[in-house]
Amino acid sequence: MLELIDLTKTYQGRGRTVTALDRLSLQVDAGELVCVVGPSGCGKTTLLRCVAGLLPYEGQVRVAGRPVTGPPEHTAVVFQEYGRSLFPWLTVRQNVELPLKEKGLDRARRTELVTESLEAVGLAGAHDAHPWQLSGGMQQRVAIARAVAYEPSLLLMDEPFAAVDAQTRADLEDLILRLWQRLEMTVLFITHDIDEAVYLGRRVIVLSASPTTVLEDLKIDLPAERDQLTTRSLPRFAELRGHVYAQIQRTKQ
Amino acid sequence: MLELIDLTKTYQGRGRTVTALDRLSLQVDAGELVCVVGPSGCGKTTLLRCVAGLLPYEGQVRVAGRPVTGPPEHTAVVFQEYGRSLFPWLTVRQNVELPLKEKGLDRARRTELVTESLEAVGLAGAHDAHPWQLSGGMQQRVAIARAVAYEPSLLLMDEPFAAVDAQTRADLEDLILRLWQRLEMTVLFITHDIDEAVYLGRRVIVLSASPTTVLEDLKIDLPAERDQLTTRSLPRFAELRGHVYAQIQRTKQ
Amino acid sequence: STDTSGGKDKVNAGVIAIVDTAPIHLGKAKGFFDKHDIDLTITPVQGGAAAISGVVSNQFQFAFANVTSLLAAKEQGLDVKVVANGVSSTGTPGEDFSAVLVKADSPIQSAADLAGKKVSVNQLKNIGDTTIRATVRKAGGDPSGIQFVELPFPDAPAALQNGSVDAIWVVEPFVSQALSQGARAVAWNFAEATPNLTVAMYFTTGKADADLSGRFAKAINESLAYAAEHPDEVRETLKTYTKIAPDVIAKIKLPKWPAEINKESVTAIAEMAKNDGVLKSVPSLVE
Amino acid sequence: MRSLYGVAGLLLLMEAVPRLGLVDERFLPPASEILRTLGGQLVTAGLWAALGETLLGWALGLGIAFCAAVAAGMVIGTVPGLRAATNSTVEFLRPIPSVALIPLATLLFGASLGSTLLLVVYASFWQVLIQVLYGVAAVDPVAVDTARSYGFSSWTRMRRLVWPSALPYIMTGLRLAAAVAFILAITAELVIGSPGLGLEIQIAQSSGAVAQVYALIVLAGLIGIAVNVGVRTLERRVLSWHQSVRREVAA
Amino acid sequence: MRVVNALAVPLLLVGVWWLVSGGSFYLPSPGRVAAAFAETWFSERVLTDVLPSLARLAAGYTLAGVIGVGLGVAIGLSSGLRAAAEPVLEFFRAVPPPVLVPLIMLFAGIDNAMKVAVIVSGCVWPILLNTVEGVRAIDEVLADTCKLYGVRLRHLVLRSASPQIMAGLRQALSIGIILMVISEMFASSSGLGFTIVLFQRGFQIAEMWSGIVLLGLIGWGLSLVFRMVEKRVLAWYHRA
Ligand SMILES: Nc1ncnc2c1ncn2[C@@H]1O[C@H](COP(=O)(O)OP(=O)(O)OP(=O)(O)O)[C@@H](O)[C@H]1O
Ligand SMILES: Nc1ncnc2c1ncn2[C@@H]1O[C@H](COP(=O)(O)OP(=O)(O)OP(=O)(O)O)[C@@H](O)[C@H]1O
Ligand SMILES: [Mg+2]
Ligand SMILES: [Mg+2]
């Protein structure tokens, strides 16, 4: 589904040249759920934007076999800057509905998807609010609802739960897992929460500090059915978690 | 230092009226470090903005004995929307330096503070970058550096570590603890990370869901000297953590 | 203000840069003003109204404007005082500097045919429409139905060409230009409206220094006389302050520059203007 | 480089329209003839003197209007209540054509630079003012809160926050005002008769010298292009941080 | 209170006018202008001169809005098109409308079409420039969101540039009134602008000023309407 070969991205600005990605290679099969972790500023967002076709790059990026030159079809992204990704002139409902209109769904189906997804992220009561009337966490959940309602085949998420409380976060994690299984989509999930990465991911990719390559590609050999209580209390979970933590610390020398 | 009596805040918009805070009362002594947790959208940011004098409110808010009508003196704020709180036309260094100029510090002292604080947040190499050339986590750290360099007597932080990786987060937590002890400032710290709240706070305030009041005001009876490894492995830490978690879950009925 | 420098009075005159005002330029070159101790500066202005404003606001000591503009100013209580003749019609249809033109293939054959047609003038309620109405009336037509529209002279030939108007009123050099390009004259409104029409005059304000006005009038009159006698030098002068093409300059019909103001014609214009509702009264402009 | 395509296209059009007989060549000469006439004019000292006069009035008027409007706009836009108090007056004065002020201008200053300045300043002042007012309203509320919470003085807030935020709007205002000031400088000369490019145009018009009129108009247009290049260069410097510019630099 | 607030500055200005106007021919006192106003404009002139002028203004303004926004979006979105079109546009922008009129007359004749074209030729610039800049300044994240979901241009581009487009439309409103006057200086025999010019040339100065006052009043009235529209269109922007 997703193939990165020798992906290199250099930002050139006045006096400041940063090699964010340095010959990074990675493969994700269709229907996989892969979590990406790495130190702040290492290039996770850059990686995601290259895959989403929003940045020019060197090397090769292929989605579903086709080289990425613009945004690939059936792709949804939850941006790290969730607040700026919402249309301030639309209500919450309209924000979620707009991509569905664009997709050509009929009104009944749209209403259904919008209601369902807003319900799922806990915003059933905020349909008619505008984004700037919402708290940070609520805005982030609108962005998630929008991506989820879109039913993409490739879902790219950049620290999507950074602004919500622990309980909501757990709920949203399970929401993503449910959807992933139901829609058989491919998910690339960037997070800073190592527990979350291990809990969600079938694989966890650990990126090194800049110039960034893949430091480790870790298979998560936990049972396929995950559950907030039981999975997290497995000894293997603690082991994997500790392993990833140690890797991240290694990047910080 | 900080006194909230029957603080009530109602947002009135077209067709949407939200009582974000409902007769909330709270006291924070000078030199205390208080963490605030609560479900997403409950009114944490609203609370902080009332204290910062950026929102009109009903009830009473007093900082250092004086009623808050505008931003109180010697106060620094790290906003949840860190990206938008940085001035895009200034470099990182200039962003951090500007409040210091305004404070009337001389050039040598300013340079010292800027260099120190950017070093402390791990951005020693990004002095001359503009905010939009930085990753999300880096931007957030610039906002933190700006607040820290200001050496305020009241520090208000709204989910300040939401966008950084686990290791950086730990470093920043310890930075705040060190500064808090050295400068004897009062800190109000909003977070979604319950571990973080218990680790940092001398008290943890748990807010209820909307309409919001104080659900619990929990004294954290851990040793004053905190350390990432030892403190977090204390049985009392786990106990407190579990207690707060349970409380938050209670708000979600 | 009449600053004296080197014994001479500094005078600023506001004058339109058209054929009519050639004498003052020529007279200046010939030294007629120096002779009368006047150090003359000629400032080009855009039209009569601007010239009158300029004099009233003391920016100019003297200026050049047409009869109707001066009458209107006088009627509104502006303190204008005529000092010398400016330019007059030749009085000969076919040989004058002002004409109403139509396209070669136009059904309009005479002034009388202009009745009910769309005719352009450079300014409404001014000397153009007044004299055209008089000409039409004399030719036996009914001028009340003529639809006048404002078009600056330079833009009129193009409007005639593309059929926006039925007839245009223009003065030189546009008369010669348009005639040579195939237009046809149907009326010579200055020549036909009233005999020996005085078209424009030099003027000052009532507050002006009488001695200076007298000397200026003398210098102007000498210039007018010289210009009347030396048409070739007039044509040469035109090359200095206008941008008329040399071949056109050779062809244009020059106006007459008598020293005398034809008082009857001024009164006649005022009467016509009053009858047309342009003026409410007949102010006395020339004592 | 691309910009040459546009100009070349325009020249081609201006050559073709009269040549193909779409309009009479006598009333709109083809581009080649206009340019030839312009070339002939450019070697005369009179034209350069006239141009100098016009540009002097333009630059002075624009400078005065710009500074005054920015100052007024920042004050009106940031001091609460002032906007409401001045609104009706601003909206009343704005649509009054500068041209209508000509009697007043000649009365006060005669056919001098003063008249030109009065008209130029009056016309371009509003352009900048309205842009500044909208620009001031475009400041990010979070950035405002940041400035307030750090206790920035009003002066610092103006200089360090409001001004840069409004700058994209102000730059547009400058571009608008630059053209309007130029137009008014020429119009003032045309109508009042103070010396300059406008007067040259007027004399050429009343002499029936069509090619010269268009040559002078083309000259005015060329100056417009030059001014725009200048403002764009300035913009790339002062707005290098802004999305609109940095996106293009990156691309 | 709001009324007092809104009236204070105008009253002050009229006061100043009263003080400086003593005896000057070109600046009659407010009283005389008011008298002339009543006499001049409370008559059939409203039908013969004012309304046709306003109709042309409306037509020109609307046309300028459509052209300015349409062209502005296209130019703002494509830096290539911008590079090619900008010099040409700047060229025409620098040409004073009074000297452009003869050219317009060649193509549009001398009737209403010409006058509307003159209004368009001046009004379009602030709208065009502001639209171009507004479109250029679109938030990157928002633009990326749109690219991804394939959301049509209209939503993103127009709405997010609308604060700046509104600034342009606001500018154009008063410029339109000015050009309405200028267009009537050519090939006219009626109209508000024409009447003012006629008064000026006939040295009926009080009447002329009353016409200018009427222009101001029209501008003020239209701006009130504009503000009401803007309040709706930009409600999301002003967070109301
Ligand atoms: N400007 C506003 N206008 C209207 N309602 C608002 C506004 N800001 C916040 N609210 C509402 O007030 C409530 C509390 O918001 P607040 O931002 O304080 O929450 P929070 O606790 O900070 O949440 P989070 O953890 O998600 O940031 C929410 O229901 C929100 O919709
Ligand atoms: N537009 C840009 N121009 C210049 N440099 C950039 C730009 N965007 C990102 N960078 C640089 O590229 C590097 C990687 O940035 P990126 O946003 O991909 O990091 P990240 O892994 O997402 O970090 P975080 O976890 O903090 O969000 C950083 O050093 C950053 O400064
Ligand atoms: Mg990132
Ligand atoms: Mg919040």
UniProtKB/TrEMBL annotation, chains A, B:
The keyword Cell cycle does not apply. GO terms for molecular function: ATP binding; ATP hydrolysis activity. InterPro entries: AAA+_ATPase, ABC_transporter-like_ATP-bd, ABC_transporter-like_CS, ABC_transporter_ATP-bind, P-loop_NTPase. Gene3D superfamilies: P-loop containing nucleotide triphosphate hydrolases. Residues 2-234 form the ABC transporter domain. Keywords: ATP-binding, Nucleotide-binding, Transport. PANTHER family: ALIPHATIC SULFONATES IMPORT ATP-BINDING PROTEIN SSUB, TAURINE IMPORT ATP-BINDING PROTEIN-RELATED. This is NitT/TauT family transport system ATP-binding protein. It comes from Nonomuraea soli.
TrEMBL record, chain D:
The chain crosses the membrane at residues 55-79, 100-122, 128-147, 167-192, 212-231. GO terms for cellular component: plasma membrane. SUPFAM superfamilies: MetI-like. The keyword Transmembrane applies. One of its GO terms (biological process) is transmembrane transport. The keyword Transport applies. Signal peptide: none annotated. It is a multi-pass membrane protein. InterPro entries: MetI-like, MetI-like_sf. Its main location: membrane. Residues 43-235 form the ABC transmembrane type-1 domain. Belongs to the binding-protein-dependent transport system permease family. This is ABC-type nitrate/sulfonate/bicarbonate transport system permease component. The lineage of its organism: Bacteria, Bacillati, Actinomycetota, Actinomycetes, Streptosporangiales.
Automatic annotation (TrEMBL), chain E:
It is a multi-pass membrane protein. The keyword Secreted does not apply. Pfam families: BPD_transp_1. The keyword Transmembrane helix applies. Its main location: membrane. Coiled coil: none annotated. One of its GO terms (biological process) is transmembrane transport. Keywords: Cell membrane, Membrane, Transmembrane, Transmembrane helix, Transport. GO terms for cellular component: plasma membrane. It is found in: Cell membrane. InterPro entries: MetI-like, MetI-like_sf. The chain crosses the membrane at residues 59-79, 172-196, 208-229. Residues 68-228 form the ABC transmembrane type-1 domain. This is ABC-type nitrate/sulfonate/bicarbonate transport system permease component. It comes from Nonomuraea soli. The lineage of its organism: Bacteria, Bacillati, Actinomycetota, Actinomycetes, Streptosporangiales.
